[in-house]
Amino acid sequence: xxxxxxxxxxxxxxxxxxxxxxxxxxxxxxxxxxxxxxxxxxxxxxxxxxxxxxxxxxxxxxxxxxxxxxxxxxxxxxxxxxxxxxxxxxxxxxxxxxxxxxxxxxxxxxxxxxxxxxxxxxxxxxxxxxxxxxxxxxxxxxxxxxxxxxxxxxxxxxxxxxxxxxxxxxxxxxxxxxxxxxxxxxxxxxxxxxxxxxxxxxxxxxxxxxxxxxxxxxxxxxxxxxxxxxxxxxxxxxxxxxxxxxxxxxxxxxxxxxxxxxxxxxxxxxxxxxxxxxxxxxxxxxxxxxxxxxxxxxxxxxxxxxxxxxxxxxxxxxxxxxxxxxxxxxxxxxxxxxxxxxxxxxxxxxxxxxxxxxxxxxxxxxxxxxxxxxxxxxxxxxxxxxxxxxxxxxxxxxxxxxxxxxxxxxxxxxxxxxxxxxxxxxxxxxxxxxxxxxxxxxxxxxxxxxxxxxxxxxxxxxxxxxxxxxxxxxxxxxxxxxxxxxxxxxxxxxxxxxxxxxxxxxxxxxxxxxxxxxxxxxxxxxxxxxxxxxxxxxxxxxxxxxxxxxxxxxxxxxxxxxxxxxxxxxxxxxxx
Length: 576
What we know:
alpha/beta; eight-stranded mixed sheet; 25 strands
């Protein structure tokens, strides 16, 4: 990339050129630190003007007005160049920060640059940061949605590929870039809370068939594999991040909207850009594998030392990947708190450095590859209070197939299924007051009222994205166990749905409530039509990816399962 695309043009460094205009309360680009400027902001390729102007009054500094988004609108001031006069001898009141300036994207730190995009939004910065971002077209593996009135699920992936300077000694030599660190980040619909669920790399699972986009524009489907490590869902046999997204959906029943992927450099550059991340150790650690050598107590780590911390596993906990995950969660929680601090938010140079570091280490899906899209995502994510961000780990068991030496893990359904259901149904793991919307109240009201007898319920069953045979199994269970005899299996659904739905006429509401009670359907699954059903027309039950087995409730529990590993992002803990 040329110098201009990298953010420097003729020695102009945007990180050093932002000044606060007290008249507008905005940071603005000023290419000459002392001389009066014209109202027109120079083009990025313009040479630097002289650094001194003897004719300029010693007690004044002219600041160019903010460029208007609308053609022809420019600020005006008392000076001929349009900048407002300032008196260096008088202390100015600190301008009140706008909500947009505080836009924070803290998910794993890899998207931090939206703070800059939300604060200054100037051509030079946009062009430079956009040039840093890499993207992958994952097709329909993600929804591509960024709607403000919907929950969002973002898969954050850390690879073990030895890319970047100084990373030759990390990870597996010659690795194609496996999914070494994986966090499924769920942002609630009302933006009051978020759940970040770590998925162990050594989880044994099935990786489904995966269509991947090739360089020539064609699509190649990579065959799935059974009973393999989760980390092979990326890199192995040419799999892209879309394959990891599909694997997550197959495990959890949760549709992933976007992915964000970073390598070893992300930890090093981001921790350095924020001035280090505060961590705590409950004991001395000297790990020859990760090269972490620290005494017990609090520390501030950055660069190579930060990377060593998040890679440590043999010297903490049980010495495995699950213990390393807890270290990573501690690190990310602290990074979130650091990025929320005022000294980051109000320092343009730090903001720019953080943004530049983040975008260079970042790969995203093509739906959010622009700075504008990532800024929009950041504006949504910054709404969540740190105390309502919960880190947890997918509940697992030691894999019995390993024998005496435990190397891999398998899903623990008794705890995992309720956790998946809570994330699918947008239930917080923290005690948070939900924003009661009119639509939510209307949904809950659908379950209230009289219920029909099971023998009077008429329903046809369709399978959309549930496991094969689900419609047949549900029919058998309803008829033989629950007494719903007026039911039928009508095969596959002509349309794809990710969540189970029950469609019915208003005059079948009592039947719908009964079937919802039998199957454990949430209120959100009930979809009443506007017109009454005619004659003996049955309701339509369409099974989605959230359906597991007949008799297993789909409705999410209201509280997290007992004894799952979890920690809130506002809590500071010491690694043991």
